[in-house]
Each structure stands twice: as C-alpha cells, then as structure tokens.
Amino acid sequence: MILRTFIPVYGAQLARLVIPVLVLPIVARRLEVDAFAALMSAQALAYLVMLAPEYGFSSYGARAVAEARSEAERAGRATREIVAAKLVLCLPAALAGALAGLFLPTLQGDGALVALTAALGLTLGLAPGWFFQGIGRAQVYAFLEIGALAAFLLLVFLVPYGPRDAALVLALQAGPLAIAVLVGHTMMARRVGLARPAWRGIRAHLTGGASLFVAKAASAAPGLGLVYLAGFLMAPAQVAIYAAAERVVMGAANALWPVMQVVMPEIASRRMRDPAGAARVFRRGAAALTALGLALGGFLFVFAEPIVHILFGADYAGAADVLRIAAFILPLIAVNSACNNGVLVVYGRDRQIMAIQLASAALVFAGAALLASGGEPTRLAWVRLGVEIVAAAAMLGASLLAVRATAEPAYPRSAS
C-alpha cells in the first residue's frame, strides 16, 4: 500500500525538481537579470501567500482525514469544514500578498505581476493534496500535479515572451496549476459529497490548525522569506544570484519531502492499533530520508560550478559559492522533516513545532538584517545554514522528549 502510494507521489516531487531545472536555463537566458530577479521574488512571495489558505492543513488535514479514514461520514464532514476554512482565509491572503508585492522593490510596482503573484499563491494554497494523502491515495493528486508541471514546461518552450515578460512566465505557471486544483476539488467533492459545513466545525479546524499554520509560516522564513527579504537588502543582480542558488537547493529538497508526507498518515493510522508497525514505518522512512539528504547535499557541493553554469550561464557564476554553502542544508532538512512529520505531527505536538519554527524565523531575519544588508549573497547563505542547524537540533530534542513523555513509547523497539 505504501509503495503504491509512494512511487507516484515521489514522481510528482521529482517533477517539481526536474521541471523547474529544465525551465530555469530557458527563463534565465531569455529574461534580463532584473526581470529574472522579479520572477524569483514573485514566486517566493506567491509561496508565502500560499501559507495562509494552506494554513498547515497539508499536515493537520491529512492527519484529521487519516484518523477518520474508517468513518466515511466523519471524514467527509472534516473535509468539507477544512475546505471552507481555506476559503475563509483566501481574501486576507490575497490582500496581504498584493500589499507585500506593491512594496517589494524588485517587482517595481508592476500591477499585473503583483496580481498574478497573489493568484498563484491562492492556487497553491487551495491544492487538495492533503485530502488524498489522508485517505491513502496521494498518488491521485500527484498525477494531476505532474500534468500541471509538464504543461508549464511545454508552455515555456512554445509561448514567445520578451526579456522583461516576467508576468507572462508567472501566468504560464499559474494556469495549469489552477486546472489541476479544480479537477482535484471536483474529485474530492464527488467522494465526500456537498453539504453546508457548520461554522462551529470551521472554527474548530481554524483553531486546531493554528499552531501548525504559525509553524509552517515560520518555517518558510529561512528559504522563501530570505528570497523575499533579499529584495529589500540587495541590488537586483545580487538577488538573482542568491535566488538562483536557493532555487536549486529547494528543488533538491523536493526530493526529500514525499518520504514523510507519505508515511506520516500511515504512522498516524497504525500508532494505536499497531505500534510495532508504526515503528517500522518510521525507522525505514527516516533512514531513507537521511541517506537521500546526505547524497543530494554532497552532489550539489561537488558539482556546484557546472550546475550553475549549465542552468544559468556565466552571468550567474557567483551563485556557485552560495550553492556550496547551501548544499549542507539538505541533510538538516532531512532530519527536520523526519522529526517533524514522523514524530511531532503524529503525536499532536503542534505547539512545540510552532515554537521551534518561530524561534528559527526570528533568528534568520535578525541574522539577515545584521549580517547581510547590502552585502554578498553568501552571507545570506551562511545565515540560513546556521539557523537550519539550530532548527534540526531543536526538532531532534523535541522528538526525543515527546517519545519519553508518552505513556506508550512512540516507536517501541521491534523486529524490522
């Protein structure tokens, strides 16, 4: 069951890795440096806008549906209430995204680019992947995502655009994703039915997901938040260099996330009825995740220069130094994800996750303001690496405490 789900979900994550890698050489060479910086900033802001309607439901919602998997009525009610909660959050998310975009120097007040940024963020935030993860059919939405990403790649090849058409490139990305989200919601509605959700239930899910939302928003600070902040701290050319390296690292990180995304609902489902089975699922997932993080980090460190040259060209040579530093982040992301999704989310330690991520966000923004203002992009990379070390250590410590504090050990010793 896990293997059948894992393969297509991992394929979708690989598509998120490979397709942007194929798109970047085209876009980086066809857009001027300032326009490329604007596109990178807009995409970073779109992912920040996504956080409001997403609201941590990628974990909270998947967990809620997985726990009610055997009770169709309860699972359907929770699904409808979570979707309604997401829609409630769309308006403030759109307004906040538009204001943030208008004040971001790299976007230069481009109204079309700002509007598309907000639209892309809302589209990403409404993605129903959490529901399909919860019912154990994550592969369904994974196939839709793969199709949307493939369409984006095809459109970038076929549609003509000029050296300053960052908004058009963003539209080519948002359109196919919107179609995938619409199809996913249609399939979800057919499974759970349509009914007016109770406001009490909506409010309960907003309250229940609040800690994970704050944690998710804070966790974006080291990656997306720094790309956005770089637009205020550096010239567009320096922003482009930092964002180029960051995009490669986060693309590689996409190869890590599906491991725990797939096994977390399975661990949550087995935890009470089959703790030994939950232990096996966790250990195998964590081992695979850590090994993959080390392998990807080593690859990026060794081949930083040719990767940057092939993807971005000679104008972005400085991104290689940033990439070598950022490569060390990948093993730390693996540890963070294993502890977060494999232990803390399963045991409902949402407040601990929130506290760790908030502290990390405060550290990264303070470090950037003190050390990177007007400086080299490598300074931002060092700030991020330092914060990721602290976050991974804190997640590991919190996970060990959670296991010891639980009446029944979270992952008892068992034969593998």
TrEMBL record:
<dbReference type="InterPro" id="IPR050833">
    <property type="entry name" value="Poly_Biosynth_Transport"/>
</dbReference>
<keyword id="KW-0472">Membrane</keyword>
<feature type="transmembrane region" description="Helical">
    <location>
        <begin position="111"/>
        <end position="133"/>
    </location>
</feature>
<feature type="transmembrane region" description="Helical">
    <location>
        <begin position="33"/>
        <end position="53"/>
    </location>
</feature>
<feature type="transmembrane region" description="Helical">
    <location>
        <begin position="239"/>
        <end position="260"/>
    </location>
</feature>
<feature type="transmembrane region" description="Helical">
    <location>
        <begin position="140"/>
        <end position="161"/>
    </location>
</feature>
<feature type="transmembrane region" description="Helical">
    <location>
        <begin position="354"/>
        <end position="375"/>
    </location>
</feature>
<keyword id="KW-1133">Transmembrane helix</keyword>
<protein>
    <submittedName>
        <fullName>O-antigen transporter</fullName>
    </submittedName>
</protein>
<dbReference type="GO" id="GO:0005886">
    <property type="term" value="C:plasma membrane"/>
</dbReference>
<feature type="transmembrane region" description="Helical">
    <location>
        <begin position="381"/>
        <end position="403"/>
    </location>
</feature>
<feature type="transmembrane region" description="Helical">
    <location>
        <begin position="210"/>
        <end position="233"/>
    </location>
</feature>
<feature type="transmembrane region" description="Helical">
    <location>
        <begin position="83"/>
        <end position="105"/>
    </location>
</feature>
<dbReference type="Pfam" id="PF01943">
    <property type="entry name" value="Polysacc_synt"/>
</dbReference>
<keyword id="KW-1003">Cell membrane</keyword>
<keyword id="KW-0812">Transmembrane</keyword>
<dbReference type="InterPro" id="IPR002797">
    <property type="entry name" value="Polysacc_synth"/>
</dbReference>
<feature type="transmembrane region" description="Helical">
    <location>
        <begin position="7"/>
        <end position="27"/>
    </location>
</feature>
<feature type="transmembrane region" description="Helical">
    <location>
        <begin position="167"/>
        <end position="189"/>
    </location>
</feature>
<feature type="transmembrane region" description="Helical">
    <location>
        <begin position="323"/>
        <end position="347"/>
    </location>
</feature>
<feature type="transmembrane region" description="Helical">
    <location>
        <begin position="281"/>
        <end position="303"/>
    </location>
</feature>
